[in-house]
Amino acid sequence: MRGIDELADVDDPAWPGLQEMLTEGSVPAQVLPVDFDEGRRCLVQMQVTARSTLGALVLNTGGLLLDDGWVRVFGGGSAVDGGLPSLGQVNGFPPAFDPAWKPGTALVVGHDVVGGVFALNGHDPAASGRPGAPGQMTYFAPDTLAWEALEMGHSAWVSWLLSGDLETFYEGLRWPGWREEAAALALSQGITVYPFLWSEEARADLAATSRRPVPMREVLGAAADFARQTGPADPGVLGHV
Fold it and tell me: Is 21 strand, coil or helix?
């Protein structure tokens, strides 16, 4: 086990470069204040250093809100009541460091408000039916109820989120007025869309769907249930929120 000082006090931390990307990126980004103790707990359990983007996020942020809150990137947990849960809370980290504990087949690192899930593959993604190589990002798509390989690591994924490519990525999943609806949500909420995003009706006319804010766990739960019943496979854990 490496202690918190060895993990946090490094010569070349990733945070200054990440701050610059957040400031200069073409996607609106909000950095939430971090829960100091929770962020350090997450860092110790993951045993990654502040040289990594993953380590920088949990140590220095309570999470990121991108594109007016459409995408939520998990960090060390927000110090503000009603903020985002920490990476450790989303993935069920043990309360005290446990060297034997592993996050299962993947580490959930982000959500979007319509139930999309970004996860970092573990050592054997094929065992759970998740595509992509170990250490690469995958996305659970709410319109197909399946995981998709993103073919990039975590640091490259964060850079990609800030690059302005989200408009293309979410083509067919955003309706007129989506930005205002996402910005109005509490951080515990997502948006339920009916007919569901995976239905032929929604694909034919997304603007005609009805939408309302609901607890995010309901959005994820409905997607997981339908994936198990009618989708290609059980998607596994989509994150605890």
Answer: helix
